[in-house]
């Protein structure tokens, strides 16, 4: 069976920890912002501004890392998906959730394997079945539309054996499918990222304005000697 450690990598773990940290910081930021604005506490508004600035810097840094380290990340994903495909099987209960997630990716993107259906020729279960079965989530046949997980059997195996070329599956690999999806939706992705950044900048400007107003009110309340 595929050990959990084989499905992880330092880069992906670091990315997951960063996302968890940003999520926790966002919750803290929202609480501090509301409390500071309602009670007019400059210290909390300052912390709110700092949290927003840190989140914005983290997002920009993450974008730069993804852009400049995309080949490294692609290699990491290739290794992880390769291990998953090789060990994928009906008896692999320990990694069932990960396998179902990969089946979902292949179904939604209409792809097969990471670079292509040939990747599945390394699967131990399919090798034992003389390649007379194929992953249902790869199928381009309407008769397999109700089966999005596990393996489907070829109707007429050739001489009792087959190859991936005999399978009724999508020719596109998921790596190309993901890249094409990103290219097709690049405008939407950039628009969402820009919108989030603008909202964060507005929040930072608002917190500074509130701090100045509070400071001005405190100054006017000081009795003149």
From TrEMBL:
Subcellular localization: Membrane
Pfam entry (one): Tetraspanin
Domain of life: Eukaryota
Classification via InterPro entries: Tetraspanin/Peripherin, Tetraspanin_animals, Tetraspanin_CS, Tetraspanin_EC2_sf
Cellular component terms (Gene Ontology): plasma membrane
Transmembrane domains' residue ranges: 16-38, 45-68, 188-211
Membrane topology: Multi-pass membrane protein
Keywords carried by this UniProt record: Membrane, Transmembrane, Transmembrane helix
Transmembrane among keywords: yes
Family statement: Belongs to the tetraspanin (TM4SF) family.
The protein's name in its UniProt record: Tetraspanin
UniProt organism field: Halcyon senegalensis
């Amino acid at each position: 069976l595929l050990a959990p450690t084989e499905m992880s990598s330092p880069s992906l773990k670091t990315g997951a920890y960063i996302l968890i940290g940003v999520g926790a910081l966002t919750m803290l930021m929202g609480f501090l912002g509301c409390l500071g604005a309602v009670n007019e506490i400059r210290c909390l508004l300052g912390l709110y501004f700092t949290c927003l600035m840190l989140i914005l810097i983290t997002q920009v840094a993450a974008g730069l890392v993804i852009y400049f380290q995309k080949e490294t990340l692609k290699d990491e994903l290739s290794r992880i998906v390769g291990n998953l495909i090789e060990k994928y099987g009906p008896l692999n209960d320990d990694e069932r959730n990960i396998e179902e997630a990969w089946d979902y990716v292949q179904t939604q993107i209409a792809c097969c394997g990471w670079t292509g259906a040939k990747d599945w020729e390394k699967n131990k279960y399919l090798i034992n079945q003389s390649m007379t079965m194929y992953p249902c989530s790869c199928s381009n046949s309407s008769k397999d539309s109700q089966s999005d997980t596990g393996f489907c059997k070829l109707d007429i195996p050739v001489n009792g054996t087959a190859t991936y070329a005999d399978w009724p599956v999508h020719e596109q690999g998921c790596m190309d499918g993901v890249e094409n999806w990103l290219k097709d939706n690049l405008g939407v992705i950039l628009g969402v990222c820009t919108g989030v950044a603008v909202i964060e900048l507005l929040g930072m400007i608002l917190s500074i304005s509130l701090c100045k107003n509070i400071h001005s009110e405190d100054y006017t309340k000081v009795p003149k000697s």
